[in-house]
Recover the amino acids of this structure.
């Protein structure tokens, strides 16, 4: 297991570095190299998942102590990391396939795919970290690897977005560092089911520890786009769509969620935080962010920004479930992480496909919702995928988004506190707003006015094979997931019950 975990991280990191040392100008060779490399990593990741399913959590793989055992580099796989590893391992090669077509006419492709591949290794490092120190180091490295991707175009807008992303991320990392040091003083940084605080050291220090947790919650919450630290996410939409798809659906934002779940259930402990002002602040801020994100998404006419604010809202769905400090809440949060990752990446793929296809039209690139009138007739594949993914994200039964949202609402009702009920109301409001901001585009595309002139769309077609394949693979994954959600919910419930 030790060597497989090292391969998961080192192979994409070193493979990306090779692309800087030995740049490949032939796009076919470069694409083959990237796909083979990422496929090997994904196969190894799936092997790790199978091992975990058959044998339970792995032993810690100690790489090296830095400042004693509490500050050491160590890797570990348990039920929590298995979910994150699984999401990344399945969606990353699909995104590579999509990126090959999306980036085929772009500049600096070697640089793009080098950092893109290295990011894969860093995310897997976060997923398999055995302690908060290791997670924190990979978390910082994630910012450094994704910054060049956000700034890929290297124009004024991209540089401003990159600077904003860097400032937000470094500020969040500073808060997370404070939280880590407080936890190290009163407990262990090793992830321990139920929490790693030393009981004898809690007495008389509860308020300090609550504040310590909140600094970590808001620090890691920057990448999870919690209000008011969400501003970088819509701005990062200037990056190429394969990047925004991973930023908003898989890598960066899920890393923020994952880190918060770790410090809540494996660091400070859900039982310790339950009923405290720290929990109340979590519940209040996540409920507000859910409604705020959906409201802003409805206001946005720029499609990628609309989807970005949708992500802001949906990330707080997960955090609301986690903030309930219960096994039911954590199970629901993990389920929605899985459902949202697949549905949202499909939506971003559709947005990127529209950008690609319209860029080749004489009328120029189209980026705004009102510009897509009648497009479904010319791009039936794109809008079929967009419609299915939209219905899933709204939470229409029996799609996977319904199961995860229902689980969060159920956990909130079972909790029964006023703030939990307010959170449940926020879910209902957000579901209504989600329907409005997603289905308005579907309506625009499928049902143009009777006098609509589509002569300017004569050059418009669906995307090529690779992009189209990525769209439909994600859609099929979302549909297949419908049948496995009850099983996954039962498995996760058995796992999360031991973390309280």
């Amino acid at each position: 297991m030790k060597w497989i975990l090292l391969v998961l991280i080192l192979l994409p990191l070193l493979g990306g570095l090779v692309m800087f040392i030995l740049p490949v100008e032939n796009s076919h060779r470069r694409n083959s190299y990237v796909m083979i490399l990422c496929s090997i990593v994904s196969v190894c990741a799936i092997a790790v998942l199978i091992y975990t399913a058959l044998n339970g959590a792995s032993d810690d793989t100690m790489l090296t102590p830095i400042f004693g055992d509490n500050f050491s580099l160590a890797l570990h796989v348990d039920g929590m990391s298995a979910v994150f590893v699984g999401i990344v391992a399945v969606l990353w090669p699909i995104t590579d396939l999509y990126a090959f077509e999306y980036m085929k006419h772009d500049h600096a492709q070697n640089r793009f795919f080098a950092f893109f591949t290295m990011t894969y290794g860093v995310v897997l490092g976060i997923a398999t970290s055995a302690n908060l120190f290791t997670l924190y180091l990979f978390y910082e490295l994630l910012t450094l690897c994704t910054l060049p991707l956000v700034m890929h175009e290297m124009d004024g807008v991209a540089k401003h977005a990159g600077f904003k992303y860097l400032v937000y991320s470094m500020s969040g990392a500073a808060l997370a560092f404070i939280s880590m040091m407080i936890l190290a003083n009163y407990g262990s940084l090793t992830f321990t089911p139920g929490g790693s605080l030393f009981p004898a050291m809690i007495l008389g220090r509860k308020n300090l520890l609550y504040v310590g947790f909140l600094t970590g919650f808001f620090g890691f919450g920057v990448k999870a786009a919690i209000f008011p630290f969400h501003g970088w996410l819509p701005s990062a939409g200037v990056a190429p769509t394969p990047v925004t798809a991973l930023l908003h659906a898989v890598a960066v934002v899920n890393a923020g969620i994952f880190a918060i779940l770790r410090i809540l259930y494996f660091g400070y402990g859900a039982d310790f935080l339950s009923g405290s002002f720290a929990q109340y602040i979590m519940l209040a801020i996540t409920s507000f962010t859910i409604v705020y994100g959906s409201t802003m998404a409805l206001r946005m006419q720029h499609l990628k920004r609309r989807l970005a604010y949708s992500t802001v809202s949906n990330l707080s769905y997960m955090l609301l479930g986690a903030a309930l400090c219960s096994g039911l809440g954590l199970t629901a949060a993990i389920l929605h992480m899985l459902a949202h990752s697949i549905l949202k990446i499909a939506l971003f793929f559709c947005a990127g496909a529209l950008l690609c296809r319209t860029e080749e039209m004489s009328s120029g690139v189209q980026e705004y919702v009102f510009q897509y009138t009648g497009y479904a007739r010319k791009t039936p594949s794109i809008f079929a995928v967009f419609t299915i993914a939209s219905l899933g994200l709204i939470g229409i039964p029996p799609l996977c988004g319904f199961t995860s949202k229902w689980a969060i609402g159920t956990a909130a009702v079972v909790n029964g506190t006023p703030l939990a009920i307010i959170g449940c109301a926020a879910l209902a409001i957000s579901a209504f707003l989600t329907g409005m901001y997603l289905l308005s585009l579907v309506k625009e595309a499928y049902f143009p006015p009777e006098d609509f002139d589509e002569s300017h769309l004569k050059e418009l077609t669906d995307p090529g094979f690779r992009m189209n394949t990525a769209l439909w693979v994600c859609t099929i994954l979302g549909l297949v997931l419908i049948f496995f959600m009850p099983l996954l919910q039962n498995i996760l419930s058995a796992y999360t019950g031991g973390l309280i």
In short: The chain has 19 helices and two strands. The mean pLDDT is 89.
